[in-house]
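thread: overnight batch results

M.L. [08:02]
morning all. the overnight job finished for the chain we discussed friday. pasting input first so we're all looking at the same thing
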Amino acid sequence: MVTAPGLSVACPVREAGAEDAVAGVPARWVATPGSVPEAAELLRACSELGLVVVPRGGGTKLDWGMPPTSVDVVVDTSGLTGVEHEAGDLVAVVGAGTPRAALQELLGAAGQELALDQPIPGPAAERSTIGGIVSTATAGPRRLLRGGPRDLVIGAALVRADGVVSRSGGKVVKNVAGYDLARLLCGAYGTLGLVVEVAFRLHPRSQARSWLHCLAGHPDDAYRITRAVLDSQVVPSALEVERTARGWELVTLLEGTPAGVQARAGRLSGLLGEGAVELERPPPGWGIFPGAADDVLIKLTSSLPGVPRVLAGVEGLTAAAEVRGSAGSGVLHAAVPGGTAAADLAEILRRLRRVTAAHGGSAVVLRAPAGLRDAVDIWGPVPGLDLMRRLKREFDPQARMSPGRFVGGI
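M.L. [08:03]
and the structure it wrote out:
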């Protein structure tokens, strides 16, 4: 039993330091529950005391979204680890604090994997946790074939702000009771409660991979090639586009058995023409968010026919922007230098939102230096905002879970 002033719970609690601030907002305490019951007891005690709670996994995306309005208790999920792997059912139930890298290593021993790539570069990638990936709906290149977190989550356990544990879905793919609740947690930034467990649908690990590179040049050419690849029978796992000094370049990933990949790579090379080059390894930067840690990172989405218009829109805005993402699924990321003036960034967002909205998409700032983040509208227009606010009131009527982090001040 460890006691913090006014907070008496079974899990370890310590005073927060400067390193525990959330997007610049200082915290009072850090609590580390080691089980779901301890997490429930902690949130129940926080609710009784009217304390504001912010979950934290590996801390790799705490600067995403907006800063919370305040932070009393940071809930460190590093004690909520563990994997229940049902290899025969291709399902795993994973503790929210489990690092993605550790999960993939365990699943790999059984020839399986969670088909979610890691777009966070460098050492931070090793700290990225399952709870953080789900809460920010982070995915990488293979979203084209496998989907993102919303497509792979089949169940979840959530501790609500009042300490009540809610579960949805199950441990087998066919059990989809409550499935929508599990998906609702994806991308909620911890504003609906504390995610403590997640059940995932898994896939067999591919025996072979091949990357085929070609130069597209113009956005319309990039779209033409993308459409041709998707309409073919090669079944790509990913189709990424990147802006380089030579124009727009495309890389297609094929996965499967050695013989199958070789045959499909041959057909794809014929489709792409003489300029196609087959690679044994992914090219530099493959699947990684563009830009540096202090740049503005913008997520751009659109329908597939809108991809060339979005590419052209970025091309016409700023020569300094780095752009990389999924040409096949219409999810791109652009990095704008962090030293961009606020007025210039606001104009860039206005023009990008005009293009993406015309094709059923959006332009959202995931990360930005504090001065820029506070000076622009990072979310843009959000359909269904009233419904989101009603859901927030249903799950967290006192607004004590990560208040202000999500769209519309949720």
